[in-house]
Amino acid sequence: MKNAYELAMERLEKESGPTKKLSNEQKAAIAELDRRFDARIAEQKLSYEDRFRAAQTMEDYDRFKAELADAITSLEAQRDREKEAIWNAK
What we know:
about 90 residues, elongated, 3 helices
């Protein structure tokens, strides 16, 4: 008798095709990509700390917070695109 996980994986494979295995090189590339983008996101957060402290009004603070969120979202989207390229590489 199959457990729920195995049944779910079979159903997923039927719906989206067979799962694709990553090579060791692809796994390493994705790990490096994650490290690089985690560092870039941390840099963004650090660079905005001074702006947060220097904010004179709540509007300034909110604007800086929105800018940081946009920057992080942009970096995460770029990371996802690059990961997708690694996944799709033959």
